[in-house]
Amino acid sequence: MNNNRRRNFRSRPQKNNYRRRNGSMNSNSGNNFNNGNMNFNRNGSMTNPHNVEKTMQKFQQLAKDAQSNGDPVLVENYLQHADHYSRRLAELNERNKNNSTVEKNNSLEDKSTKDLSNGSD
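The structure corresponding to this sequence follows.
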């Protein structure tokens, strides 16, 4: 028996449903287009405004650090990332503002409909 011999790498069997959150991959209304990032989800980190703001601030700080180290390419890279997250944050804030306006309007409509139905009795 030769213990110095290298063992061949044996890959694990692939788990097809590992961390898939959106159910079926073919939910694109019949076409077979598959975007690799479709099921990519960091536990909602891109939908939580607090996390997006924290990430934006992190890239701004990295850009400052790179500036002090004298690396203009890295500064631009980090600033582009920070800009992306600032646009994402603005988009989330706009969506939340619109959702709260719609919810407020719906509650007012429900209340006025309820008042009308009670007044006609």
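The CA atoms of residues 99 and 119 lie 30 Å apart.
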